[in-house]
């Protein structure tokens, strides 16, 4: 009888359960994130074409954001922007080494208590990280203090971060450990798998970052950025031995911008000499070594997906793949490197896969590294912060379609200081003047890049007719047959166009928060203008061409972020005067 009664009771429980709303039976699982962040990976030299596992697991199963941009095209400032959601002029981390950058600068600006890993832990996420965090995170200062916000970590440390065969990692609170003779990406892969195992065993939602240093060049560092006179020796990336003979006949894509016959660009770039055959041959070798170094990263991606499948986590995990900045080799006669504002350096891979993400899809909506921290928070159901300079990225097909008309069309691009060549051929030291403010803007019927250098030279490229950025529309030196006053874009004369984009750049170069996201509202608080095309209407000619006389300019070229050198700053109309914009007497907080 007891067994019969038990059966009836069990049947009653089952019946009752069927009547209870599903959300009351068990809380939905919070999603996990795996973020794979490579170092210096290009979007324009076809590197993704040589990564079959990235294609299989990510491109074929996720969404490719083809117009994703970093905002400062060098490692440390870009990574700080990525982890904080703030542009470099708002983090004040603008270089890879002290005094203007590196891990010590990150610490001094107070971000160790106020960045994404900390916010994730506050939201009850476990956080794990292996690989490169920041430059000048070293065997000497790794614990002064420890990076906050990690449940478990295993960081690459300087001066061995970029030594493919002599890496040093530092795990949790343990002392650094050397892996001399072992291949860095393979060591990192094992650490990533271990951290994934730990994350799963903890039975809590997790955020795991895997940050290999490939395909960055190999660097022997005799000292670090903490030393007075460190000596760095650059060479091509080093692949794992099993990959060293791949792609023997591959060459850098011979696009029109590769080692062009005629100089282009502005400032020090237009002074570069054309590379001879020996130089070109070496750079082809450098390119092949980058592709070979990425093969171990590709295998790492496959290893992570294999384990996610074994753990049955693929239906509840978002996998995001990106890089800190892009890369050039030979374009505009440049030696291997980054640090410029051209498309090769600022346009970087971004691929997202996960629940609700469209498969085998791509989009050209504009996104930037300032958007990643807000995206991660929104994805995980964590409230957004008011001081983000970026907006969450549309992820579902419906969101992407809506964003075609609603999302911002601009990228703020900025850089300070030195541009280093990373091959065996160096270039003129005028590269110390590599400070500029720039604007990348893509809308319906227009696709532009505009920059102002610290020597106050200007560049403008119409990337619909000149996608390789070879013909600076504002330089009679490189375009002797071009009269800027006779050129048109959208049937608009260039002076009229420049008045708009110069005003937009003036806002963006010192923007904060929502002003960075919706800069046209700073110029038109009534909200009647939200795109460049709107601003080009004739009704605004007097406002831009007569009223707004203050333009972007520099007082001098300096190595870091110095307001004294930055020229006039955009001021909020708070009654304090200055060079800011006031429109129809409307107060700034009327719309913020």
UniProtKB/TrEMBL annotation:
Pfam families associated with the record: Sulfatase
| Broadest EC class assigned to this enzyme | hydrolase
Query: What post-translational modification information does the record give?
Result: The conversion to 3-oxoalanine (also known as C-formylglycine, FGly), of a serine or cysteine residue in prokaryotes and of a cysteine residue in eukaryotes, is critical for catalytic activity.
Q: Which reaction does it catalyse?
A: an aryl sulfate + H2O = a phenol + sulfate + H(+)
Signal peptide location: 1-16
Domain Sulfatase N-terminal stretches: 31-382
Where 3-oxoalanine (Cys) occurs, the residues are: 75
Kindly indicate whether the keyword Glycoprotein belongs to this entry. yes
Task: Name the domain of life.
Answer: Eukaryota
List the EC numbers from the record.
Answer: 3.1.6.1
Name the keywords, alphabetized.
Glycoprotein, Hydrolase, Signal
GO BP of this protein: phenol-containing compound metabolic process
Q: Which GO terms describe its molecular function?
A: arylsulfatase activity; glycosaminoglycan binding; N-acetylglucosamine-6-sulfatase activity
Q: Which family does it belong to?
A: Belongs to the sulfatase family.
By what name is this protein known?
Answer: Arylsulfatase
Q: Which organism is it from?
A: Aspergillus ibericus CBS 121593
């Amino acid at each position: 009888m007891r067994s019969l009664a038990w059966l009836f009771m069990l049947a009653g429980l089952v019946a009752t359960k069927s009547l209870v709303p599903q959300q009351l039976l068990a809380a939905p699982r919070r999603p996990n994130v795996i973020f794979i962040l490579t170092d210096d990976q290009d979007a324009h030299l076809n590197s993704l074409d040589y990564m079959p596992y990235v294609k299989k697991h990510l491109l074929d199963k996720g969404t490719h954001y083809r117009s994703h941009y970093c905002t400062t095209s060098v490692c440390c400032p870009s990574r700080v922007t990525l982890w904080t959601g703030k542009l470099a002029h708002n983090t004040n981390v603008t270089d890879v080494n002290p005094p203007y950058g590196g891990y010590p600068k990150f610490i001094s600006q107070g971000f160790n208590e106020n960045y994404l890993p900390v916010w994730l832990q506050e939201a009850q996420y476990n956080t794990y990280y292996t690989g490169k965090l920041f430059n000048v995170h070293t065997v000497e200062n790794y614990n002064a203090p420890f990076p906050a916000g990690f449940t478990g970590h295993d960081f690459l440390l300087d001066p061995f971060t970029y030594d493919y065969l002599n890496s040093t990692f530092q795990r949790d609170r343990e002392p650094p450990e050397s892996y001399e003779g072992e291949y860095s990406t393979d060591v990192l892969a094992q650490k990533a798998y271990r951290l994934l195992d730990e994350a799963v065993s903890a039975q809590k939602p997790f955020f795991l970052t895997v940050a290999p240093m490939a395909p960055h060049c190999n660097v022997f560092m005799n000292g670090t950025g903490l030393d007075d006179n460190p000596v760095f020796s650059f060479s091509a990336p080093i692949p794992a031995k099993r990959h060293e003979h791949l792609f023997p006949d591959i060459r850098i894509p011979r696009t029109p911008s590769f080692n062009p016959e005629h100089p282009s660009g502005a400032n020090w770039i237009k002074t570069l000499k054309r590379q001879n055959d020996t130089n070109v041959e070496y750079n082809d070798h450098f390119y092949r070594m980058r592709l070979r170094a990425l093969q171990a990263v590709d295998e790492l991606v496959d290893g992570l997906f294999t384990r996610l499948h074994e753990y049955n986590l693929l239906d509840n995990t978002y996998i995001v793949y990106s890089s800190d900045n892009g890369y050039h080799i030979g374009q505009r006669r440049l030696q291997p490197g980054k640090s410029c504002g051209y498309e090769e350096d600022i346009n970087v891979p971004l691929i997202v896969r996960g629940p609700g993400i469209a498969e085998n899809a791509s989009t050209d909506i504009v996104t930037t590294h300032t958007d990643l921290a807000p995206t991660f928070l929104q994805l995980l159901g964590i409230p957004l912060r008011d001081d983000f300079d970026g907006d969450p990225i549309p992820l579902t097909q419906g969101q992407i379609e809506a964003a075609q008309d609603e999302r911002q069309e601009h990228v703020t691009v900025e850089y300070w200081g030195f541009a280093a060549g990373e091959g065996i051929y160096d270039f003129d030291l005028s590269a110390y003047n590599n400070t500029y403010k720039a604007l990348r803007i893509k809308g319906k019927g227009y696709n532009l890049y505009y920059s102002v250098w610290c020597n106050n030279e200007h560049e403008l490229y119409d990337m619909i007719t000149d996608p390789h950025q070879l013909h600076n529309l504002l330089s009679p030196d490189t375009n002797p047959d071009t009269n800027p006053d006779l050129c048109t874009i959208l049937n608009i004369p260039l002076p009229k166009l420049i008045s708009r984009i110069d005003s937009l750049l003036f806002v963006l170069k010192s923007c904060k928060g929502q002003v960075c996201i919706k800069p046209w509202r700073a110029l038109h608080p009534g909200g009647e203008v939200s795109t460049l095309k709107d601003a080009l209407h004739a009704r605004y000619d007097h406002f831009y061409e007569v009223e707004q006389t203050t333009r972007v300019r520099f007082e001098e070229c300096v190595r870091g972020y110095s307001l004294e050198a930055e020229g006039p700053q955009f001021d909020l109309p708070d009654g304090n005067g200055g060079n800011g914009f006031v429109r129809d007497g409307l107060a700034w907080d009327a719309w913020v």
